[in-house]
Amino acid sequence: LATFGQNDELQAFMDQAQEDYKMLGMTIGAFKGNEWTMRGRIGVRHADDPTPIGEDDKFYLSDAGRSITAMLAARIVEQSEGRITWLSTIADVFGESITVLSPFTEATLLDLFLHSGHILDFEQVMMTEELMEWYDQVWAASQWDMPEENMQQRMEMTEFIVNMDCGDDPEEMCAEGRYSKFTYTVAVAMLEKFTGKSFDVLLNEQVFGPLNAPDCGLGP
């Protein structure tokens, strides 16, 4: 973006990119502090919706949510004065509030963000009927309107995950280093347990508020 000093130049670049790469639509921008330095947009909102992308349209952040969650964890760790660190374990944070079985007891906050906490992934969920039914229940209960309910659901999910029976072959169900979306659920539950605040409140206080981005958020 540094190549383009004016919005007109950026827009021309994007128009050409759309023609060259057959893009449906996108927006690009850069800001310094709280002020936009350049903005550009091309295309339409959806393949079945010819409405042009607008200046104030919102975009799904997708996997960017993981980086934002890691930023949140870093701020909480930094401000905690050592009460929670990257090396705090699941067992340390939850204490006696839930049972935590091996090998999850020694998994640290850092392990979870590095996918090294022995947390199952979606492939493991699809291996047994019990886990598929559990995931169906989790999905059915997901919602956007009540952060406190999501906080409770994350706690219940964490308790289920860290009490899994790894079976005769721990490398099959509880392997270390497996890429898992559920590892972020456990990490967020740790942050919520430590602070006593919901994920939504923490994001607004620690990330989106300081960025002056009140319209941003992450899903349940």
Describe the structure.
- The two termini are 32 Å apart.
- The protein has helices spanning 7-21, 64-79, 90-94, 109-113, 122-125, 129-141, 147-161, 170-173, 182-195, 199-208, and strands spanning 25-32, 35-46, 49-52.
- With 220 residues, it is mainly alpha-helical.
- The relative contact order is 0.12.
Would you kindly provide a brief summary of this structure?
The chain has 220 residues and is mainly alpha-helical. Helix content is 46%, strand content 11%. The chain has 10 helices and 3 strands; from the N terminus they run H-E-E-E-H-H-H-H-H-H-H-H-H.
Q: Could you describe the largest sheet, including whether it forms a barrel? A: 3 strands, antiparallel
- Give the fraction of residues assigned to helices: 40-55%
Low-confidence parts, pLDDT < 50 over ≥5 residues? 1-5
Give the count of helical stretches: 10
Calculate Rg over CA atoms: 21 Å
How much is the average pLDDT? 87
Compute the separation of the termini in Å: 32 Å
Give the SSE order as H and E letters. HEEEHHHHHHHHH
- By secondary-structure content and strand pairing, the structural class works out as mainly alpha
* Percentage of residues in DSSP E strands: 5-15%
Number of strands: 3
- Overall 3D geometry? globular
Q: Order of strands across the widest beta sheet? A: 1-2-3
What key phrases describe this protein's structure?
220 residues
